[in-house]
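Comment thread on ticket #2218

A.B. wrote:
> Attaching the input chain for the structure job we discussed in standup.
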Amino acid sequence: MSGSTGKKTERLLNLLIMLLVQRRFVPKERIRSILYPGASDEAFEKMFERDKDELRSLGVPIEVGQIDAYFDDEPGYRIRPDEFALPAIDLEADEASVIALATKVWEHARLADATTEAVRKLVALGVPVDVSALDIVEPRLTADEPSFDVFLEATTERTPVEFDYLRSGGTAPTRRHLQPWGVVRYSGRWYVVGLDTDRGAERVFRLSRVQGEATKAGEPGSYDVPPGTDVREVARRLAPPPTSDRTVVLVRAGSGYALRRNADETQAGVPGPDERTAWDRLVLTRGIPGAADEILAHGADVVVEEPAWLREQVVQRLSAAIGLTAGRAS
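C.D. wrote:
> Ran it. Output below, let me know if you need it in another format.
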C-alpha cells in the first residue's frame, strides 16, 4: 500500500487492534495521543468519527461505555472479542462461515506488515495488550482473489469501482459499476456487497467471478453507506445458497475443533496415516463450507477420505504449493 490509502488503512488497523487487545474501555484522549498525534481538535474529531463509522460498517462492534462506573466522565471505547467473533447462536453449518471482513482480513499479505507494526507501536508505548484477542476466528482465512485489494481499498475510501463480471452460467462478462459497502466471507468464498449503480439496487458479487482487473472509478468519499447496513446479512440474503455434500475426514486427536463442532458423527481411535498419534473420523452430512480452504488451514492434522473430488482438490493445491516452494528455492 502507498500514499494516503496505506496510511488510512494502517490507522484503521491500529484503531481496531488497540480497542480489541485491551479489556477495559480506552479513553478518547488516550486514543488521540497514540493514534492521531499532532491532529488539531477539529481534525481529530472528524477522523475519529469517520474511522469508527468505517469499522462499524465492516461489522466491527465498537462499544461505548463509562470508564468509571461511579463518575460521569468522558466515555471510553473497546471491542469485545466475544462479540467480534461469530456469536454463539443457532446457525446451520453453512451459515456459520459468515464472518466480518475485519476478523481475519489482516492475514492478507498486504496488511500483515501494518498489523505487526501496530502491535509493536502499542507495546513500545507501554499499552497493555492481549494479542490472543487477535486469534478469535477459526478457520484462518485467505484473501487470494486478485481483485480483493481493490475492493477493500475502495470500501475504506468510499470510492466507486468498475469491473467485468461473469455470472454463473454466463458466456461473456458484462461491465458492472459498484459503490462497495464491504467485503465479506460467505460459504467459503469472498463477496463484495454494494450498490449497483447501473441497476440502482443492492447487489452481491463473488470476487472469483471478476474478470481481469477491477479499477477504482471516481473520487474518494463520493458516496455513503446506507445507515444500518449489515453487509453480512446482505450477503447471506443475496448470495447463492451454499451447496452441501457428505464429507468424511480423519482428524488428529486434539486438533480440528472447528470441524468437530459441526460433525454429525465422530468415531474415536481409528487408524490414521501417522501411527504414532491417535486419529478420529468425522462425518459431516451437511458438508464443510469452503471445504478445501478449511481443511488446508489445519495442515497435516486433517486428511480427507471422501468425497473423492474434495480429496483430489486438496491434493492438487498441496502439490501446487510444494511446486511453488521448490521453484523459489531453486
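A.B. wrote:
> Thanks. Noting for the ticket: Residues 34 and 125 are 8 Å apart (CA to CA).
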